[in-house]
Write a structure and sequence with these properties.
It contains 15 helices and 24 strands. By secondary structure, the chain is of the alpha+beta class. Strands 4, 5, 6, 11, 16, 17, 18, 19 and 20 form a nine-stranded mixed β-sheet that branches. Strands 8-9-10-13-14-15-7-12 form an eight-stranded antiparallel β-sheet. A hairpin with a 3-residue loop joins β14 and β15. The longest helix has 23 residues. 20% of the residues are buried.
Length: 574
Amino acid sequence: MILARGDLNINDGEFTPGIKIPNCRRYFNLYHPIDPVAYRIEPLIKQEMHDKEPVQLMQYSAVKDQSFGQLQEEWEGLTSPVHGFPYRHDYVMRRRKREQGMMEVAFAAASHSSYWMSDDVVLFTLMQLCEPVVDILHRYMSARVPLPKLIRSIVELTPHAKVLLSATALVRDRCTGLSREHIVLIEKDRLFFLSRLSEVACRRKWRLKLTAITRAMYGDDPFMMKIVTSDASASSSPSAASPASNNNAILPGLHVFKASSTPDRNAWLEEINEAVAIAAGLELSAGKDPRDTTNLVDLPTGKSIDYFNAIKAGFLKEKTANGWYDSWNDRWLVLQEDHLTCYENSPKLDFVGQFPLRKTKACCYEREYLIRVVARRGAACEMRVQNQESFDRWVEVLARIPTVEIIRHEDLLENSPSSVLIMSENSRESFGEAQNAGQAGEWLKTKIEGYQIKLDESDQEYVAFVIQVASSTAGNSVVQRRYSEFAKLHHQLRKMFQHEQIPALPGTRMWNKFEPNYLKQKAVALHGYLNEVCKRCANTRALPLLLEFLELAPPASLDDPKTSPKEENAEKMN
């Protein structure tokens, strides 16, 4: 820098003090203490700075849990003006333990390339990028105006949000390109993305439907209230008009709560009785239904996120019978249009991503269950839903939002790498149409969406794998098959082909058959197996078996020759 600015006399080697800094708004010199080609700038500008130590960069690991305001206060203390400098120029990085002593010679060359790998340097850069925000904060503080909590484009997610649909989806990260599972909520003008399921889902204790006989009444003291759900309990409960004294026994159909103050108790009484009156009116009128909200989220047993669209939510103490004595437990109570729900805990809705739906286009790809929402300025979000039901529901809800334009893309089956072309005449007679007889063939694609746990005739649980079948002539259909049916198909194919010509059937196990992770892996393995079977059976004598398995052809008639008892025993053994 000194040679470039001409402040060094090459003839006699003397330095002219007081060089000028580059003509820019801010200039910083970051260097590593053992970097062999780094040097300080401040002593070259003013000789008085040679005895002033450079500013030590803030350590990221020590301040990563602090707020932006705390970081700014600490930063201003480090960079206070000195010797006429409006701000400091030299900043030195922190030495690591292995770079001290005799080892600094070994790490000297590596230190020159370690700047952008340092978290401290990244933090310093971010603090400089946020300098305009600091200037705005200073103007607010000098004018003694309250600081804004949220910018205009960000809306806080609370249980009072009017959620139209909630579902589990794979959301693509625009930075890394990876897709991660999120809970996606849609409001009238906004999408919300929740990544931490454990902090969002709450454990529900009970759920009470509000009817005409439901009443909220005064309790035994100024802080208590009673919710009566039956006529038998109402006959032994005090009137809501005036408090009354009664025994502490908990009757069936009676819930006793204690609020933190009398005004809080009265507010709950008023809101519950008003919701009961509205719910009773909805029961009498057939033309008006409660809010239509769909929940398609995969949650653990006992967990729930049905607390949105709340009229009122808050913590109360519930009186519960605990053996021979009664106890008071903290409960999170949520009042909705037609229900009153009690939870053990409240959700944490802090880490929420959002995408506004104002003047957006929703591109819907049905075969891949992909929905891509694009804003007018180019911002976009991609999410892949789980199945056809969820996809149809998303398209229906997005179509009800006036600021969203729906664009449905029809994906051609012949463009999919997993599709097979069926050329045989028998296949056209089985599931083709007369008007398609002149075409080159018919395209077929299968996809295992997931699994469902059902009960058979003996009330025994079994797993049915859901197969989506897409045909260029027969359209889309859904088929459910058990693993034993896959095994039966595999056994029949082994009679027609050599063993090395057909794919291996994924195995099964005899214990923990209903474990979710195991069933997901099994569905993925069967999906690959079925794709290979479709490619092998296309345009061969095994095609009728495949079409019957996918319900694209009627089952074999009773007049067909039956298998021998030996073959039947072999099928049972496999």
